[in-house]
UniProtKB/TrEMBL annotation:
TM annotation in the entry: 7-23, 96-127, 139-160, 180-201, 213-232, 313-333, 345-361, 367-385, 397-419
Gene source species: Candidatus Roizmanbacteria bacterium GW2011_GWC2_37_13
One Pfam family cited in the UniProt record for this chain: PMT_2
One annotated GO molecular function: pentosyltransferase activity
Membrane topology: Multi-pass membrane protein
Compartments, record wording: Cell membrane
GO biological process, one term: lipopolysaccharide biosynthetic process
Name of the featured protein: Glycosyltransferase RgtA/B/C/D-like domain-containing protein
Keyword Zinc attached: no
InterPro entries: LipidA_mod_glycosyltrf_83, RgtA/B/C-like
Keyword field: Cell membrane, Glycosyltransferase, Membrane, Transferase, Transmembrane, Transmembrane helix
Residue intervals of the Glycosyltransferase RgtA/B/C/D-like domain: 74-226
GO CC annotations, alphabetized: plasma membrane
Length: 570
């Protein structure tokens, strides 16, 4: 049982974690990512009609953009939309709550692994204040919900292995199963981690014990509704869209290398030295090394993906870097001496396994690597505990106070940079123009034809911002055929159209139509003399960038426009 002092510190930890994730979560950033809008609008559609945007009743797979979104986050968002309406706050709230609960789960997991209350608290504080967890928790990222279920599954499995009770095993299997409904990476990670756990902790002689069998059965029963779809075409959509074979750049590089090589060497030699197996193996090795590099984890992070990374910040607080090194030294020494305990062996295998799904898709990225977070924190805490052995008690106490203080100060420094600098500097990455543009377009009556030429996801963004009745959306949405890897987008939603045609073609198409016609693009057509004026200019919040222009087609410069081909086609 935890004493009152520990409970008080846990309460402080919860408050800090909640503040870092909750503060102005709906306003900073004020924009909405296309995937966020898709999750939110599908949850809104489920709430209002019991159907998704395609008109499918309570689906287990949401087709969305053809990327086959998993259902957990959509259904988790329904209650918050019911309470607070369809907005950025509502769709991000489940991730905020998941982020706070993950911090608590890490605290109890560290306790379960034999760490002291003090070290468990510091480990949880590292999770609470890490840029990694804060970013995952402030957006509609389904990986964060998947991580919560994953953490609860591991914690309950650990409890089950220590106590002669079946309920924790049943619940562990259930929560492990929920990861399959949450995020695609767990389709591979969770079975491997379950298998590793059963072999290490739940063996009786050479076989899995009764609790392990119960856990496995509960896991299989939970995922059984998804098993068929997981191995069908729709379940493989994400892999096809983002896997190694989907990388056209690799194919082009291989072909280029072969072309140059064959000028000097026999074809068989060139083909043997430049092929998918070698290139993909090299890429995987590079990505794996990068994932665990201090530069990536503590210094730069996902520096090329501005919407999930703040300049000059890694994934974890830099103050934890020395303990990260000590953690590796500790595990390596035990491995050499063949003294790895069950807990340490589980950690080593988990560190090896959890990055793989992310690395098959592309370079390391904090969203796809979410399952790695708790194991890195455990590694850091092993380093902390290993260092403690060489220091006197009063020195350890000073280090505790210093680390806790620096973690809190570092997190505040990060938040100040994220909320006041980064969000403003890279607001284009967060689509801050979406609400202004879609609200403006929503003010026109349905007889106004609207053609959008620069925003592929505009129909779902329009529906999200203007809270379009889902029954109307389901009837009016017309989609183009899926591309070669399964992506599809809406091209017509009533009077809203996504077009690749220029404004002259739109003018000729609507010349006999007396209704108002708007054309939206990111090009300044006034400057190049193609139209007289812009009806509306959408600028960034800091007024630095012009992000969209709205033109009334009737204002086009009609000189030298020949629409005769329209009549000929008719």
């Amino acid at each position: 049982m935890l004493n009152k002092k520990t409970l008080f510190y846990l309460l402080i930890l919860i408050i800090v974690s909640f503040f870092l994730r909750f503060y102005k979560v709906g306003q900073l950033p004020s924009g909405v990512l296309p995937d966020e809008a898709s999750f939110g609008y599908n949850a809104y559609s489920i709430l209002k009609t019991g159907k998704d945007e395609y008109g499918v009743s309570f689906p287990l797979i949401f087709k969305a953009f053809g990327d086959q979104k998993l259902p957990a986050y959509v259904y988790a968002t329904v209650p918050s939309i019911k309470l607070f309406g369809l907005n950025n706050f509502s769709i991000r709230l489940p991730s905020v709550i998941a982020g706070v609960l993950i911090v608590l789960a890490i605290f109890f997991l560290l306790l379960g692994l034999g760490f002291t209350i003090e070290l468990s608290f510091i480990g949880a504080l590292i999770a609470s204040t890490s840029q990694w967890s804060i970013i995952l928790s402030r957006f509609t990222f389904e990986s964060n919900l998947g991580l919560l279920f994953f953490m609860i599954g591991i914690l309950l499995s650990l409890i089950s292995s220590k106590k002669n009770k079946l309920l924790p095993a049943i619940l562990a299997g259930f929560f492990f199963g929920l990861t399959w409904y949450s995020y695609i990476s767990y389709r591979l990670i969770t079975p491997l981690i379950v298998l590793i756990f059963l072999i290490i902790y739940m063996r009786k002689n050479k076989f899995i014990n009764k609790k392990g069998v119960i856990l496995l059965i509960a896991f299989i029963m939970t995922i059984s509704p998804l098993l068929l779809s997981s191995f069908a075409n729709q379940g493989q959509a994400r892999l096809k869209q983002a896997g190694l074979n989907a990388n056209l750049g690799t194919v082009l590089e291989i072909n280029e290398n072969r072309t140059f090589c064959t000028h000097y060497l026999p074809k068989v030699v060139c083909y043997a030295s430049a092929n998918k197996i070698l290139f993909n193996s090299r890429s995987l090795f590079y990505r794996y090394i990068t994932t665990f590099s201090p530069n990536y984890l503590f210094m730069t992070g996902d520096k090329n993906e501005k919407y999930i990374n703040v300049d000059h910040f890694g994934l974890l607080p830099i103050i934890s870097l020395p303990f990260y090194f000590f953690g590796f030294i500790y595990l390596w020494s035990l491995f050499i001496e063949k003294r790895l305990s069950k807990n340490e062996l589980f950690l080593v295998l988990s560190l090896i396994v959890t990055p793989f799904p992310s690395l098959f898709v592309g370079d390391p990225q904090k969203i796809r690597l979410s399952a790695l977070l708790p194991f890195l924190i455990i590694l850091i805490m092993y380093g902390f505990r290993h260092l403690e052995k060489y220091l006197k008690k009063h020195i350890n106490y000073i280090i505790y106070v210093a680390v806790v203080t620096l973690l809190i100060l570092f997190s505040l420094f990060f938040m100040i940079n994220f909320l006041t600098v980064h969000v403003q500097k890279y607001e284009i990455s967060y689509s801050t123009y979406v609400h202004k543009l879609m609200n403006y377009l929503g003010s026109f009556n349905k007889k106004t034809s609207i053609y959008i030429g620069s925003i592929t996801e505009s129909p779902i963004l329009y529906a999200y911002v203007n809270k379009i009745d889902p029954t109307i959306f389901q009837k009016l949405a017309i989609r183009k055929q899926p591309d070669s890897i399964g992506f599809t987008h809406i091209i017509n939603l009533g009077n809203l159209h996504v077009t690749e045609r220029n404004i002259e073609e739109i003018y000729c198409q609507t010349i006999k139509n007396n209704w108002q016609t708007l054309y939206i693009t990111n090009e300044d057509l006034v400057k190049i003399g193609r139209i007289k004026k812009a009806t509306k200019i959408i600028r960034s919040e800091n007024n630095v960038d012009t992000l969209a222009f709205v033109y009334d087609v009737k204002d086009i410069d009609k000189i030298n426009i020949d629409c005769s081909y329209i009549n000929e086609n008719r």
